[in-house]
UniProtKB/TrEMBL annotation:
Highest taxon above the source species: Bacteria
Record's keyword annotation contains DNA-binding: no
Limits of the HTH LytTR-type domain: 148-252
Protein name from the UniProt record: Response regulator transcription factor
InterPro entries for this protein: CheY-like_superfamily, LytR-like, LytTR_DNA-bd_dom, Sig_transdc_resp-reg_receiver
């Protein structure tokens, strides 16, 4: 299986140089390029590369910001090789677990050494992940969700679970609602219900759940149906099928 590489640098000539050096090595597939930090974070989350050659100084978001904006729930992190014209960033690069640091200008021998090292680290991590995966799967199932990772065209940001007042299903997505905004996530309501149970989210109908801490009023309507008034005035109507969950809340 080929090693999948993403090239990130705001200078086209630098990206071409990396491609040229990579072409001299067997078993390499360049899966994409990015010319700025925002695009880099998006491509890492989308393409899941094995190795990223990452320029430190770029418009909008630097290399350190790219790593901070990679979704930690989106699979194993890639191996990073930092590239920069300034050695002042070296210590910080290793603090964020970059496996090597290329100082411009570098020759193909130095590049080859960094690539070999990065591939070795990636293979070691892959073997470790393979051995730990059963345990990690078990731990993930037990760990409550603390925040949502939200992506749009220009950025990746986080929404604490406690800020979400209710969630509704919409096709293959869910829409999380806060006091001021709404965001679409590719997730199912059933899976979220399991993850959010420790946070007292309550399924009130097939297509919606509410944050119990945000309920300000419950109004009985008819035939076991309730209007649930949330902080801020939003009203979510329950269904009879899930009425027992609301009654359990009222009796607790």
């Amino acid at each position: 299986m080929k090693t999948r590489v993403l090239i990130v640098d705001d200078e086209p000539i630098a990206r071409r140089g990396i491609r040229r050096y990579l072409a001299e090595h067997d078993g390499i597939e360049v899966v994409g390029e990015a010319a700025n930090g925002i695009s880099a974070a998006e491509r890492i989350n989308e393409l899941h590369p094995d190795i990223v050659f990452l320029d430190v100084q770029m418009p909008d978001l630097d290399g350190f910001g790219v790593i901070e904006n990679v979704d930690p729930e989106n699979g194993p992190a890639p191996v990073y090789v930092f590239i920069t014209a300034h050695d002042a960033h070296a210590i910080r690069a290793f603090e964020v677990h970059a496996v090597d640091y290329l100082l411009k200008p570098y020759d193909k021998e130095r590049f080859a050494k960094a690539l070999v090292h990065a591939r070795q680290v990636f293979e070691q991590r892959k073997e470790t992940n393979r051995n730990l995966e059963p345990l990690l799967q078990s731990l993930r199932s037990l760990r409550p969700l603390e925040r949502f990772v939200v992506k749009d065209k220009r950025r990746i940001f986080f929404v604490p679970v406690s800020n979400v007042s209710w969630i509704e299903a919409t096709g293959n997505y869910v829409c999380i609602h806060t006091a001021n905004d709404s965001h679409l996530l590719r997730e199912t309501l059933t899976r979220l219900e399991e993850k959010l149970a420790p946070h007292h989210f309550i399924r009130v109908k097939k297509s919606a759940m509410v944050n119990g801490a945000c309920i300000s009023e419950i109004r009985p309507m008819f035939d076991g149906v309730y209007d649930i008034v949330l902080a801020g005035g939003t009203v979510v109507t329950s269904s009879r099928r899930y009425a027992y969950k609301l009654r359990a809340l009222l009796e607790s």
